[in-house]
């Protein structure tokens, strides 16, 4: 097993951005594996609430369904339920950031951080 100093030296010697990105992706995958037991399993189809830590504030405590993750699983698309879609549509602090048409019943938010999603359902066994 190489030492941490050897790993750092190896990374410093990589010839290009692509090579560094490959190492970064491998490190991210390993971090997710190590951290998996400490957090709930967020998967598409689960229902949840956006926590009060998210910015902008108009997204706080909105509810809906988790959609597909990004490549690393650090962010998820989030489909708001009808009540939360209406709440976001009418929120004066939203301004023009999230443009929701009058006939849109459920609005899809892109790239909500996994750390800002609180699951409200119980996982189903597949």
Describe this structure in words.
With 126 residues, this protein is of the alpha+beta class. Helix content is 29%, strand content 21%. It has three helices and five strands. Strand 2 and strand 3 form a beta hairpin.
* Bulk shape: elongated
Low-confidence stretches: none
Major pleated sheet: 5 strands, antiparallel
Gyration radius, rounded: 19 Å
Q: State the separation between the terminal residues, measured CA to CA.
A: 37 Å
Estimate what percentage of residues fall within beta strands.
Answer: 15-25%
The assigned structural class equals: alpha+beta
Identify the strand order in the major beta sheet.
4-3-2-1-5
Output the number of helix runs. Answer: 3
Quick tags:
126 residues; 21% strand; alpha+beta; 5 strands; elongated; 5-stranded antiparallel beta sheet
In short, what is this structure?
The protein is built from three helices and five strands.
Topology summary:
Elements: H1 4-12, H2 17-35, E1 47-50, E2 63-69, E3 75-80, H3 82-90, E4 108-113, E5 117-119
């Amino acid at each position: 097993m190489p030492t941490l100093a050897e790993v750092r030296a190896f990374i410093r010697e990589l010839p290009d951005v692509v090579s560094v990105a490959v190492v970064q992706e491998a490190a991210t995958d390993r971090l997710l594996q190590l951290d998996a037991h400490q957090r709930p399993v967020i998967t598409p189809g689960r229902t949840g609430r956006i926590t009060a830590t998210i910015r902008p504030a108009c997204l706080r405590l909105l509810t809906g369904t988790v959609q597909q993750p990004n490549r690393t699983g650090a962010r998820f698309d989030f489909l708001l339920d009808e009540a939360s879609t209406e709440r976001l549509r009418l929120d004066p602090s939203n301004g023009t950031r999230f443009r929701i048409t009058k006939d849109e019943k459920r609005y899809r938010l892109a790239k909500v951080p996994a750390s800002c999603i609180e699951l409200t359902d119980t996982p189903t066994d597949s």
